[in-house]
Design a protein that fits this description.
By secondary structure, this protein is α+β, with helices and mostly antiparallel strands. Helices cover about 45% and strands about 15% of the residues. It has a 5-stranded antiparallel beta sheet with strand order 5-4-3-6-7, with no helix packed on it.
């Protein structure tokens, strides 16, 4: 009789408990039968998947899921190594990752599972229906290992913790630009008291993600022990750039604590008030640290005041933290302003058809006054990919990329866009907005513009008008 087929049939018909009982019985009799092992493994996979779905729909508690994981995955470990790498092995990991936050045994299982058994498909990003890419199974595995190494640093054995640290360090060598690996590495270093190393690991991330609140919060944590003034600046910057209040609720508490230590009680009161307002509005529990600040004499004396000072703009001070006494030479690249967005407070500089940078108005003072079609120099510290400054230039064109063009402006009936047809046979696309602002002189259709090489919707290169030359 084909016992593996019988187990699979029971599973596929939804009789999971019967399939599990039959699998256990058959495995006890024939523990070396690879087909029984696989059928048994698929039953365990269904059970783990069921627990994950129950957790996501709040039908099961964290403790219940952890207990079920312990039971199922202990059984899988009896034979799972015989079929790795493989589809079942990878699919099971996918489900385990979804429940890894509530399962204390995750790191031990991850070490046994073996990152060396990840397949080529496991390393490919997921393509979502909206066209975006989600992290691969491999990256999610690394993120979970880094995250749980932080959460379980005091409870997991030192050998497993060392293994987890090695996974993150090794992954960073392969993916040096991944912000989450830098995040976990920085936190792990900070946990071990390696402050200077944590700052060194984190600084490139902050330079690339300067508008992200979480990087400033983490950078502030690395400075708390050695320089509270810098930590305060980092926390203020996090609050300043945060898009949503929830991003900096804990940051405000840490900031209030440091401000109170420096006897800046008025500023500290504002932070406590805002942290409390968010939790009250969302019916969240007040944590112990915030409760202690609320109970302090200095807060109670100021709680009802309406004249508390506003949060300072620390943009320049934060910039100085990222580039302290910078001695590296600055390399300049010439580009053209091809988009100016006053609503989002940013502009875009194009250097080539495939390369450009966003310059935010707050960071790069004066760029908000630049006109589309204007050519500037953008500076980069040697070895950095992030722009650090800009300057005006005497250049009026960029060879083979941006230049002045002259020709006859044409527009078909019913179309909002147009084309400038030059005497050299080039066809320059004119956007509807630029068409509406075209110089209107009776009887004259021969016009001049600043144009650059861009791409159309199909990705084909071609000339695009940026501004009119009067």
């Amino acid at each position: 009789m084909n016992y593996a087929s019988e187990i699979s049939q029971l599973r596929k018909s939804g009789k999971i408990d019967e399939a599990l009982a039959r699998a256990r019985a058959c495995f006890a009799v024939s523990p070396d039968d690879l087909y029984i092992q696989r059928a048994y493994g698929w039953v365990l996979y269904e059970l783990v998947k069921h627990e994950v779905e129950a957790l996501e729909k709040s039908r099961s508690s964290s403790g219940q899921v952890a207990n079920r994981f312990n039971e199922c995955l202990a059984e899988y470990r009896q034979f799972g190594e015989n079929d790795r790498p493989g589809m079942l092995h990878s699919l099971l990991l996918n489900q385990v990752l979804k429940g890894s936050r509530v399962w204390p045994g995750f790191l031990g299982f991850a070490r046994w599972w073996g990152p060396e058994f990840l397949t080529d498909d496991d390393r490919k990003p997921y393509n979502l229906p909206n066209g975006k890419a989600a992290p691969s199974l491999s990256m999610r595995f690394l993120y979970a290992v880094g995250r749980e190494a932080l959460h379980q640093a005091q409870s997991v054995d030192s050998e497993t913790l060392a293994w987890a640290n090695k996974q993150v360090t090794t992954a960073l060598a392969e993916y040096p630009d991944d912000q989450w690996l830098h995040y976990y590495q920085s936190k792990l270093l900070l946990e071990r008291g390696c402050i200077a190393q944590a700052q060194e690991c984190l600084m490139p991330v902050v330079r690339r993600q300067q508008r992200a609140a979480w990087v400033w919060t983490l950078l502030g944590q690395t400075f708390e022990r050695e320089n509270q003034n810098i930590a305060v600046t980092c926390y203020f910057r996090a609050v300043q750039v945060a898009n949503k209040p929830m991003e900096v609720v804990k940051t405000r508490v840490a900031l209030a604590r440091l401000l109170a230590t420096q006897e800046r009680f008025d500023e500290a009161t504002l932070q406590v008030r805002r942290a409390l307002e968010y939790r009250t509005e969302n019916d969240y529990k007040v944590p112990q640290e915030l409760g202690q600040l609320l109970a302090s004499n200095w807060y109670r004396e100021r709680a009802g005041r309406n004249d508390l000072p506003k949060e300072p703009d620390v943009a320049e001070a934060a910039e100085a933290i990222l580039y302290p006494c910078e001695t590296r030479p600055i390399d300049y690249r010439t580009g053209v302003i091809d988009n100016q967005n006053q609503v989002e407070s940013l502009c875009h500089v194009a250097f080539t058809i495939n390369d450009g940078r966003i310059l935010r108005h707050k960071k790069f003072k004066g760029v908000e006054n630049l006109a589309v079609g204007e050519i500037i120099d953008v500076g980069f510290f040697a070895g950095d990919d992030c722009a650090c400054q800009w300057r005006k230039t005497e250049k009026k064109l960029i060879d083979d990329f941006c230049c002045a063009m002259r020709g006859e402006l044409t527009q078909r009936t019913g179309q909002s866009f147009g084309f400038l047809n030059t005497v050299d046979g080039d066809r320059v696309f004119v956007h509807p907005d630029l068409m509406r602002s075209a110089p209107k002189i009776d009887g004259i259709t021969d016009l001049s513009c600043i144009a650059m090489i861009g791409k159309d919707k199909q990705g084909r290169p071609g000339w695009r008008a940026l501004s009119w030359v009067m």
